Amino acid sequence: MRLGLALGYWGRGPDGGQVPLVQEAERLGYHSVWTAESWGSDAFTPLTWIAAQTSRIMLGTAVAQMAARPPTTTAMHALTLDHLSGGRMMLGLGLSGPQVVEGWYGRPFPGSPLTATREYVDVVRQVLRREAPVTSGGRFHPLPYRGADGTGLGKPLKSITHPLRAGLPVLLGAEGPKNVAQTARIADGWLPLYWAPSRPEVYGDVVHKLPEGFLVAPMARVKVCDDVAEGLLPVKAMLGFYIGGMGHAARNFHADLMARMGYEEAARRIQRLFLEGRRQEAVLAVPDAFADEISLVGPRERIAERLELWRAGPVTDLLALSPDPHTLRVLAELNA
Fold it and tell me: Which of 129, 176, 214, 320 is deepest in the core (most CB within 10 A)?
């Protein structure tokens, strides 16, 4: 199992300590570093900045939001950064949810998310292969555009720039069993959310029959500390935001996943509290047991014991959410 460093997205502004942290992770032998985006900082620009100040570590998006860019634009970002970094790019994509897609990007959330994802990945692959001008007769990403409000003058185009790698890895963030099953068919890897190594069946039977070489790269908060309950507070804060605020009360994929994992009553309570503006109560309502099973928190010996569960399953890459250099060093030592 390889190690990655997950940086997420910025809060109020950039963190000046991130580049030194990535450089330390590279020195420790971490395989990859990953950025994200929500409705603030983008995923690609920080990776470019990091690429210029590192030499070996792979560069991934976990995730770049599909609604933010047409698939051709995303492919342009990926192939450009792949060239600039000497072939270190890994493209992780996610669909997000209706609240973000319609509220931030001003686009309709697709009525058929699986189809929209499949079309998106197909166009990205076409750009990267550069075998012919890119075309798509799809419902969500037609190329050329033939809508009634168009000019009718669009024509299929092939990338001017020759991609460095036609096989640049494409990973997908997927939560529901059908989405995970499709991911195993059309992508090179999967970015699970809330991975619980003791019960992968939450994501469907496909996790037991993944293709050879398929990447499984979940994120997990990692913290070496003496007080487990205190170490879990950042995990609970993240869960409170995602489950309570990252989606509508009637349609929140993160809350639905938590419910499938056996915490339905808690998930609905967190949603209710968050939407009522009682955010601190929402965070405290996250069960310690749930936060604990999807993270690696506690003394070194406890993390070492629990790390064996992660290594025993299908996980190929553990993406550590940890801004702490000491924790990164301990994790590297334990995984050696």
Answer: 320
Domain extent for 286: 226-295
Cα 13 to Cα 138, 286, 325, distances in angstroms: 38, 27, 21
Same domain, 277 and 262: yes
**Beta carbons of 156 and 133 less than 8 angstroms apart:** yes
Q: Do both 104 and 213 map to the same domain? A: yes
| Total-model pTM | 0.94
Does 63 sit behind a cis peptide bond, omega within 30 degrees of 0 on the bond before it?
Answer: yes
Whether residues 42 and 124 share a domain: the answer is yes
Shared domain for 251 and 139, answered yes or no, is no
Least confident among 157-166, 197-206, 210-219:
197-206
Looking at the fold, whether 8 and 94 belong to one and the same domain comes out as yes
Looking at the structure, do residues 281 and 176 belong to the same domain, yes or no?
Answer: no
